[in-house]
C-alpha cells in the first residue's frame, strides 16, 4: 500500500482572505489508519479532496510513494482516476436504480475487469462486509448502516491503495455508529488498506485511528497516537479539543497562591526561564479526599452529575470551576467542602502563546511538596527578586 506525503500543502479558495489549508505537512504511512480531526471549517475535507485529486492545491506538494501527484511548482497534476485512491463521502451516493451487487460491481465494470473476476471480487468483498444476503436488494430497501457498508464495499472492490472517508458515519444513529466503528476497525485489519478518515468527533477519532492529526483554522496542530495527543497535547487548543469532560484550565494568578508556588518551583527547574499562564489537569486525574493536608486544596462541590456508570462532579476553587470525573459513586453531597489533590505528574502548564511547556519526570518530582504552604513563595520571600517569579503575574 502506498505512503501519502503532504509537504507544505496549502489551499486558498478565490475570494477567501484566509487559506482553508495552511502549510500542512504530514506523512500517512503504509497501512496506517489516520484521522484528520478538528472543528467544522478547519480544512479537513479540503485536504481529503486534494489527496483524492478533485481539488487542486494552491501551493505545496502531494506525493503518493515517490510519485508527485499534485504540485503547482512542478506543474504536475495527476487526475483522480489515476491515483488509486477511493473516496467515500458523508452521503454514500449509491445508485438507487441498481441492486447492491450492481453498485459494488460498478467500479470494476468501469475498469473493464473480466466478468468472472468481477463476480468473484464482488462476492468476496460483500461477504467480508456481511451484505452478501442483500445482493439483490435496492438501496432503498436497506438500513443506513447496510447502505454504508455497500458504499464501502463499492470502494474496496476496486482495491484502492488508499481509502479516504469523509465523516462516513455522520448520518447514522448512535447504535449504528458504534457498530460501524467496529466494522471499520475489522475492515482495516482484514484489508490492511491505508485509511484517512475525517471526523470532528474526538471520541470517534480516539477509538478508530492509529494516528490522529489535529487541525485548527487550516493549520496542523499536532500529530500523534491517540494516547500522545491526550496525554501530551502540544498546545491549549489540542488539550481542550480532546477529552470529555474537557481538561480543567486554571489561570495562574495571585489568588491561587498554592498553585502559583507549585508552578514556580516546577518551572524553576527548567534549564531556561519559562513562564506559565495557565495550569491544567484532566478531570479524572483529580483525587478527592475528606482529609486536608499540605498536598490538598479545599474546594466546594457545586454539582454531582450521574452519566450512567460514572459521575461528573463540578467543583469550585474560588471563582474557578473545575470538573472531576469518576467511576466510583461519590460519597459526598452537593454543597459540601472537600479536599482535592492534584498530582504533580498530572499537571500541564501552558505559556503565554498557549504552547505546553514540556516537563520531564524530574521537573515534576515535587510530590512530597505539592501545594505545601512550607514552599516559599518566591514573590513573598523576596519581593525585589525579579529573576524569581517563573509564573507570570496575572
Ligand atoms: N469551494 C469553496 N469555496 C470557498 N471556500 C470554501 C470552499 N470549500 C470550502 N471552503 C472553506 O474552506 C474552509 C475549510 O472547509 P472544509 O470543508 O475543508 O472544512 P471541514 O473541516 O471539512 O469542515 P466540516 O467538518 O464542517 O465538514 C471553510 O472555511 C470553508 O468555508
Automatic annotation (TrEMBL):
Residues 4-242 form the ABC transporter domain. Residues 375-394 are annotated as: Disordered. The keyword Cytoplasm does not apply. Gene3D superfamilies: 2.40.50.100, Nucleic acid-binding proteins, P-loop containing nucleotide triphosphate hydrolases. Residues 376-385 have a biased composition (Low complexity). PANTHER family: MALTODEXTRIN IMPORT ATP-BINDING PROTEIN MSMX, TREHALOSE IMPORT ATP-BINDING PROTEIN SUGC. This is ABC transporter ATP-binding protein. It comes from Marinomonas arctica.
Amino acid at each position: 500500500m502506498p505512503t501519502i506525503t503532504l509537504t507544505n500543502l496549502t489551499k486558498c479558495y478565490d475570494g477567501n482572505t484566509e487559506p482553508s489549508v495552511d502549510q500542512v505537512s504530514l506523512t500517512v504511512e503504509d497501512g496506517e489508519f489516520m484521522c484528520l480531526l478538528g472543528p467544522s471549517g478547519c480544512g479537513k475535507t479540503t485536504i481529503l479532496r486534494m489527496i483524492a485529486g478533485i481539488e487542486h492545491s494552491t501551493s505545496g506538494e502531494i506525493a503518493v510513494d515517490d510519485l508527485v501527484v499534485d504540485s503547482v511548482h512542478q506543474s504536475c497534476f495527476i487526475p483522480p482516476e489515476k491515483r488509486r485512491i477511493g473516496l467515500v463521502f458523508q452521503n454514500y451516493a449509491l445508485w438507487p436504480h441498481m441492486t447492491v451487487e450492481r453498485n459494488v460491481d460498478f467500479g470494476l465494470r468501469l475498469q473493464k475487469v473480466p466478468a468472472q473476476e468481477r463476480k468473484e471480487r464482488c462476492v468476496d468483498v460483500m461477504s467480508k462486509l456481511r451484505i452478501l444476503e442483500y445482493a439483490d436488494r435496492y438501496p432503498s430497501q436497506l438500513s443506513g448502516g447496510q447502505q454504508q457498508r455497500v458504499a464501502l464495499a463499492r470502494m474496496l472492490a476496486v482495491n484502492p491503495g488508499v481509502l479516504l472517508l469523509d465523516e462516513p458515519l455522520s448520518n447514522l444513529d448512535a447504535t449504528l455508529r458504534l457498530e460501524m466503528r467496529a466494522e471499520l476497525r475489522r475492515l482495516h485489519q482484514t484489508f490492511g488498506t491505508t485509511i484517512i478518515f475525517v471526523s470532528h468527533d474526538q471520541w470517534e477519532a480516539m477509538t478508530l485511528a492509529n494516528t490522529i492529526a489535529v487541525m485548527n483554522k487550516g493549520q496542523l496542530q499536532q500529530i500523534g497516537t491517540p494516547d500522545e495527543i491526550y496525554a501530551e497535547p502540544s498546545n491549549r487548543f489540542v488539550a481542550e479539543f480532546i477529552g470529555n469532560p474537557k481538561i480543567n484550565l486554571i489561570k495562574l494568578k495571585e489568588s491561587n497562591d498554592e498553585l502559583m508556588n507549585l508552578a514556580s518551583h516546577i518551572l524553576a527547574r527548567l534549564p531556561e526561564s519559562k513562564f506559565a499562564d495557565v495550569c491544567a489537569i484532566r478531570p479524572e486525574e483529580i483525587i478527592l479526599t475528606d482529609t486536608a493536608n499540605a498536598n490538598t486544596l479545599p474546594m466546594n462541590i457545586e454539582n454531582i452529575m450521574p452519566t450512567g456508570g460514572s459521575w461528573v462532579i463540578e467543583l469550585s476553587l474560588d471563582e474557578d470551576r473545575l470538573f472531576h470525573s469518576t467511576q466510583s459513586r461519590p460519597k459526598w453531597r452537593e454543597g459540601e467542602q472537600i479536599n482535592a489533590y492534584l498530582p504533580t505528574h498530572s499537571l500541564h502548564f501552558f505559556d503565554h502563546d498557549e504552547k505546553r511547556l514540556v516537563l520531564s519526570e524530574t521537573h515534576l518530582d515535587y510530590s512530597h511538596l505539592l501545594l505545601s504552604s512550607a514552599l516559599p513563595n518566591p514573590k513573598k520571600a523576596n519581593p525585589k527578586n525579579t529573576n524569581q517569579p517563573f509564573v507570570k503575574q496575572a
